[in-house]
Amino acid sequence: MPLREDPFGWVGHVIDDKYRIDSVVGEGGFGVVYRAHHLGFEQAVAVKCLKLNKALEGDVREAFLKKFLDEGRLLHRLSRATADVVQALDVGVAKSPNMVETPYLVLEWIDGTTLDKELRKRRGTKMPLDEAVQLLEPAARGLAIAHDQGISHRDVKPANLMLSDVGGRFTMKVVDFGIAKAPTDEPIEASPHDGLGSGMQAFTPRYGAPEQFSRRFGPTGTWTDVYALALILVELVIGAPALEGDDPVQLYVASTDAKHRPTLRAKGVDCSSAVESVIARALD
Description:
Elements: E1 14-15, E2 19-27, E3 31-38, E4 43-50, H1 58-81, E5 88-95, E6 101-108, E7 112-114, H2 115-121, H3 129-148, E8 161-166, E9 169-174, H4 210-213, H5 222-238, H6 248-256, H7 273-282
Antiparallel strand pairs: 1-2, 2-3, 3-4, 4-6, 5-6, 7-8, 8-9
Helix pairs in contact: 3-5
């Protein structure tokens, strides 16, 4: 298996005298995730390093870094309120061995797998409704507490739901609040977590709400997470994605078609009127 690239050059070095970086475990357009060792706690942690847009300069850059630190602290406060989301342990900015200014977020290390990988293994397999509800309950609880604190995730999808054994108890955790922000829908030019000033907010079309495809449907917010979680519940029960389509354009049409909502009954599942009403409201 080929070695992953390390654009910052952090592997083998220590961030802020606390986190020894051991390996790269993932890289995306916005950042790099490392497996690291907390020298104080003597345990594994994940360190997410953000790629700064080179176009950010002067006061705009400083405002960006301040917002990143503020959001890191916000996620830490959320961590203290619930164990159903990945725990944020630290946040900071450090100069990398490659002399690149690196905003970083330290998170708990979770041994487990994603719901996305499990779905791919069992594609086509239907799950009883009560089992699906029980499986997603920790994620719903974690998102509810985040919403109570004014935090929306805005990219809820199976790949961001981790299944793990925590203290001998099988559970699910919501991960990657990397594009989370308070739901004010302020201009996004200097937000750390929405595409680094690209003017486009990251989301996954397969689980996208209408307002993510087009702002003519209104702002994104906590309701966006509710929509995505309802899609995942339907997917578990029917054994196939709730939104029909093979590309972003088809998914946009499916997500925004008010006359055809992908509820359980619409997908041929026999469920109570109460359950159907809840799903219909979530997908309204």
